[in-house]
Amino acid sequence: MEKLGRYWQLVQQMLLEYGKRKSAYGDIEVETIFAPELDHYQIVYVGWDQQD
Question: Is the dihedral of CA 40, 42, 47, 51 positive or negative?
Fold first, then answer.
């Protein structure tokens, strides 16, 4: 179980680092969502890129 906990920690660290990057297009924010009790880890892009 200790290895699995370390794996979850690494996944969270990786997603947090990825989430710090700004989008090259539009007014878009990157949000990280973690629900470790459910084993859910997610990155969400929120915003508008102003394309027609």
Answer: negative
State how far the Cα of 46 lies from the Cα of 27, in Å rounded to an integer: 8
Q: How many whole angstroms separate alpha carbon 13 and alpha carbon 23?
A: 19
Question: How many folded domains does the chain comprise?
Answer: 1
How far apart CA 35 and CA 42 sit, in angstroms, is 9
> Domain of 18?
2-48
The pTM assigned to this predicted structure is 0.67
pLDDT in tens, 8-52: 889 899 999 988 887 777 788 889 999 988 889 999 988 887 765
